[in-house]
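Quick start: read one record
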Amino acid sequence: MSTLKNFFNREINGTGLYLIAFSFCLVISFIFTTTFTDYFHTRPLQLLSYLGIGLVLVKIYLLDNYNYKQLSGISILLFFSFISWRHSQSNTQSNLILYMMVFILGAKDVEFKKIVEVFYKISLIMMLGVILYSLLGIITNLAYFTPGRPIRYALGMLYPTDMASHILFLILAKCYLVFPNIKWYHYSIFLLLALFMKVVADARLSAYTTVLLVIIMFIAERAQKGNKLCKILASFYWTATPLLAFIATVTALNFDMNNHIMRKVNDLLSGRLLLSYQAFQRYGISLFGEPVIEHGSGGIKGMKMFFNQSRYFYIDSSFIRLFIIYGILMFLIFLAFMMIIAIRSTYHHSYILPAIMFVVAISCLLEQHLLDLSFNPFLLSLLATNTYKWREKNEKSDRNSILQ
């Protein structure tokens, strides 16, 4: 009883409010990626998630110590994301842009390590729980059959690649928490998980990205410990975001089925290049996005689409989704966020976030999870207090310089 009294008598704390809101929205977002959604109406959950958004807005406007200029900049960014959300509302995931923007801007004075710890613990528990429930038959374990490929199991997720992506981002969170002391057994477990992704889900991108992650993190660790060659290599990690975004956009805009090389690449990417090209042809380029109608293969409803491929249309690349669904303005803003996170860390000789942004950029090339809190908490590092691996004397100025 005394514990409860202490809790309610405690002064309202911005960090506590933020982490409660983040935990709340993380759980809801995670549920939306599972087959639990086939057993109840998701609309009430979606409405509940706006409570988390409200809590973060309270923190921003009432608890954070922003000056007028900074608050004006934040309000403009929130307004842009709101307009983009409204423009793309026929898309089932259109609210992700608003969620992510609110949590990015609300992370001021919150230690980023705490955010990652909350993400890692909640996501790991939910991941293991969903897999167990699917294996026990309590929720649906979807299996996908494609000619020429092994059976792919989703293990309680809406799609096999979603399951693999959850694992990939959990690995990234673990890397952040233990860096720069990633042990050989960590790398061994990561490689075993890559094998698991390939064998169980045939999620080639996430599996191969995990193998690359081991190399990227190994170099980042050596750079952090002073290896000159590795520091040179790691100092270029930030270039992955603009380079891969450029490649994704240019190849989609200039795709030609008559080009032998492009056709081969498209086949290798399971038709994703053609779908990105079709997205630009159908919806074009706009400032604040377009209402895009998609028919994916995820979930029970999506499985029906799986057997009617003529109607299938889904934009997998996060870069192309940003461009088409949310507009060129949001595309440029979020690319800038990713680059600022990586460049700022590199400037202060901290290589874990550039390494993570490198891996996230690779994933964004062909996967759609950049803006989903249940996958990617790393954009929240933009304004969060990055005391972990940061020189304390630079902490305050780095945190505030973006909005000055």
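The beta strands are 143-144, 152-153.
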